[in-house]
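Minutes, structural biology subgroup

Action item carried over from last meeting: produce the structure token record for Dolichyl-phosphate-mannose-protein mannosyltransferase (Marinoscillum furvescens DSM 4134). EB confirmed the sequence was re-checked against the source entry. Recorded below for completeness.
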Amino acid sequence: MIWQTTSMLILALVLIKVRPRDDFWKLVYWPAMGLRVAGALLMGWVYLHYLGEGDTITFHQEAFARYQQAITSPGAYFAELFTAQHPVFKAEARTELFTKILSVLYLLAGGSYWIAAAFLGVISFFCAFHLTRQLSNYFPHLRTIAIIAFLAWPSVIFWSSGILKDTLTNSALMLLGSVVITYCYRKSQPFSQLVLTFTCLLLLFYLKFYLAATAGLTLGLLAINTLLKELRISTVGRMALLAIHCIALLGMLSLLNFNLNIANFPQAIYTNYTQILDASPEHHVVFENLTPTYSGLLKASPESFFAGLFRPLLFEGSTWFLPFGLENLTLLLLTLLSIYWWRHIRMDAAGWCAIIFCSILAITLPLAAPAFGTLIRYKTAYLPFLVFVLLYTPFRRLFQKD
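Output recorded by EB:
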């Protein structure tokens, strides 16, 4: 108890020390952080005391076992900490890595689930806060929608703050978003940005390889497009070269994981889809004509894209999904407004990065994870970027008229 209290006091002192000096961001800092920590604790309470099962409980049990090992046999703990027990392409390897990281937080938290969850909530907050301030520095007129999308969107707070792999992966994506902003709008590129990019992609690869592949493809296309623009190649020529490089990047990314291999990808998607359907017969997206072929995936893509953006719909599924149905209804209304004002949409390279990233995941995730409970959680990887893009035009048309 003394160690837990001490660690919380140290954390509080650090948070006070690093708080922003600007008056506006001071007002945002504490409420936004409070939301993240509250989201982490709420998610834990829902699973521990209401649902009684789930990934967060499994992670807690494994991390707590490692924490106890660190107390009783520190030599064995540190030996295992840096030794992988499973091949990197196995799901067990991803769980193993996350619980090892989590066990370090448990050491700082004195074995407390709740304090470790609060630590993760703070980490999640700082990554989102960093991206929000980056956007606001370059685009002061977009400050409000950046705060809404990255610091205040309910499901993002709930699923990206507690003891889940999503907290670390989504935080890494926020940092990569800040890298994109720096790359697009800063003349000099510090070496630290390259290190940050590599670290985030590596973390994504080990925890959720498909996010690393999608982010890597998007960043690769951005870098190639920037290079081609500097070479003053015509728009048509640039589009053709981008298409060629996109194919080359896809070929390279297919080597990262067995399921991403070009020959295996359709079957991997189909197998995952059928396995999840068998495990959760209710409350899921159904693709009647899905087959383990590229043509089958292509035919299912429009329906999958809609599901990745807007499902579960309002009143679809159980009462548990009602808040997410309301959220998706809001997304649908924002999309319709953006379509209505499509002539006023102005997207630069960073905006297209967000659209490409969101579109790829919105199409593929419902196919691979059709259960609503899984989909709404996995969706938070791209949801804040989607919300930011969808808020952009309606907000400017309604509230920033000249």
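Discussion: The mean pLDDT is 89.
Next step: EB to file the record with the rest of the batch.
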